[in-house]
Structures are given as structure tokens and as C-alpha cells.
Design a protein that fits this description.
The chain is an alpha/beta fold. It is built from ten helices and 13 strands. It has two domains: 118 residues, Aldehyde Oxidoreductase, domain 3 (Alpha-Beta Complex), CATH 3.90.1170; 150 residues, TIM Barrel, CATH 3.20.20.70. The chain is 41% helix and 21% strand. It has a seven-stranded parallel beta sheet. It is elongated and about 75 Å long.
């Protein structure tokens, strides 16, 4: 997975957990003893950020000899990572690596399950996630989405021009037309997208030169009718749907004929149950 995560990012996670010393390992006087840490999934799921969990062990002086790559479907009880080293290194890495693997794999698993359900009814649909992961987790959660098979709809505010209703509140009527035309003049050739809530706004956006429209919290029944009408006007416009779309209702939205589902639901996924066993060797 070609996403850059600097060692300094991982070191911040390590420092947050260690905060100077591992007092328990020190007072037990086991720091210099040799050991092995084995990390297992307690339930099935998609592995994510295992490489970064391994790097945490390496940064702390352990030797990683086995790893299951991100993107692999793992079974309950399957070993994901194995690291050898001093007890001090293994215990320092233990919780940080395990927690990162647990949360990221939860996101990846939820993403893949959404894709599997959506493509049963719409084989070409794309699942894209928003820029709403919990603060401080973005780089790991975006990687998890990608290994789960999704795409990053927006990585940051500087990625794309996407006009929301909160932007339109500052624009004179006709709001959508004026906003799209104004944005295109200074877009530097970039695509301009706009959030719409009705067929009328969608038509206004298409006629104004928008390349992407995103329907927000429109029911699947209404959305299907709107998409059908939009296709009569333009077969090139990219149509997305967002707002409250989860694993429970994604099939209904995918069946409307939209090109993309935009969701934050994977970020709220239950972490995969992961355990680490550390033993003396």
C-alpha cells in the first residue's frame, strides 16, 4: 500500500503510551530477558496497518519475523504478526501496535463489507469516505479505507472544490449556478462539485458546468427518480449520494444508479478484536 507514514508519526503514538518509562516491566526486572510477541485476530476481518504495527515493534528494538499484509482477509485465531526481542521492547510496543491494528482493521473490514453489499446491486459503484475520521487518526484510517477497497473521496480541504449548502448560504440567488460559475473561473482547471438536495438544484449544477453532484440525505426512492432524470440531461456527470449511509442501507442507495456512495460510516466501525501473547524464549 503506497501511503506514506513517517516514523515520527508512529513515534508520537509510542510516546503517548509510554510517557517516559514502562514502570511495570522495570520493577519486575525482566527488561533484558528474551521473548516473543505474537499478535492474533480473535475474529475474522480485513487486516489493516499491520506494516505500521510491525514498524512500531522495530522502532522499539524488536525483530519482526512474520506479518500478514494489509488487505488480507484473516480468520479468527489467525496469527497476524510475530516479533522477537527483549521483554522491554516487546512490552513497549504491545498496546500501541495492537490498538492501531485493531481500529484500522475495523475500518477496513467495514469498508469491504459495504463494497460487497453495494456491488451486488450496482457492480460499478465506488465507495468513498469523507474527511471526518477522528482527529489524529486520518492517515491510518485513510490507509484502512484503501486496503478495504474503498477510495478517499476527500483527503483534505485542498484536494477538491466541493460546494456545500453552508457555502451556498453566502451566495446570491440562483445560488447553485452562481457558485459553480464563480468557482470555475478560479478553479485552475479543477473539477467543481456541488452538494444538491433536489432535481432542480441538480439541473442547475449540470447546466452551470459542474462535473460532480452529491445528493445529501435524499431518500433512495426519490433519489432513483432524480438520477434517472439527470441521466437524460447528461451521461457524463458523476453522481454521488451521502448522508446517513451505512452497512444497513447501502444496497438501497446503490440500487438508485448513483456512481458513488460517500460515507463516514467506516470510521465508526467496531474495532477488530485483537490479542497479543508475549512469552519468554
Amino acid at each position: 500500500m503506497s501511503i506514506f507514514i513517517d516514523d515520527d508519526v508512529l513515534k508520537k503514538l509510542i510516546y503517548e503510551d509510554i510517557h517516559f518509562i514502562d514502570l511495570t516491566t522495570q520493577v519486575l526486572e525482566i527488561s533484558d530477558l528474551d521473548g516473543v510477541a505474537r499478535v492474533f485476530f480473535r475474529e475474522s476481518g480485513v487486516v489493516a496497518c499491520s506494516e505500521d504495527a510491525a514498524r512500531i515493534y522495530k522502532i522499539l528494538g524488536a525483530d519482526v519475523r512474520y506479518i500478514v499484509k494489509s488487505g488480507v482477509e484473516a480468520e479468527a485465531g489467525q496469527k497476524i504478526l510475530e516479533a522477537f526481542g527483549k521483554a522491554s521492547s516487546l512490552h513497549l510496543a504491545w498496546r500501541v501496535a495492537q490498538t492501531l491494528l485493531s481500529y484500522a482493521s475495523g475500518v477496513a473490514t467495514y469498508t469491504r463489507r459495504m463494497i460487497e453489499k453495494a456491488r451486488k446491486v450496482n457492480p460499478r459503484i465506488i465507495i468513498g469516505t469523507t474527511r471526518q475520521p477522528p482527529p489524529g487518526t486520518r492517515i491510518f484510517y485513510l490507509k484502512a479505507v484503501l486496503v478495504g477497497g474503498g477510495v478517499v473521496h476527500r483527503q483534505s480541504l485542498s484536494d477538491t472544490i466541493l460546494i456545500f449548502d453552508n457555502h451556498l448560504n453566502f451566495i446570491e440567488k440562483p445560488r447553485v449556478r452562481n457558485a459553480v460559475e464563480r468557482a470555475l473561473k478560479k478553479s485552475g482547471g479543477r473539477c467543481v462539485g456541488v452538494e444538491v438536495r433536489s432535481l432542480e438544484e441538480a439541473v442547475e449544477a449540470v447546466d452551470s458546468g459542474a462535473c460532480y453532484i452529491q445528493f445529501e440525505r435524499v431518500s433512495p426512492k426519490d433519489l432513483e427518480k432524480i438520477v434517472r432524470e439527470i441521466r437524460k440531461i447528461s451521461d457524463k456527470i458523476i453522481v454521488g449520494a451521502g448522508g446517513g449511509i451505512t452497512l444497513e442501507n447501502i444496497e438501497e442507495y446503490a440500487a438508485t444508479g448513483v456512481d458513488m456512495i460517500v460515507t463516514s460510516a467506516p470510521y465508526r466501525a467496531k474495532p477488530i478484536d485483537v490479542t497479543t501473547i508475549i512469552e519468554k524464549v
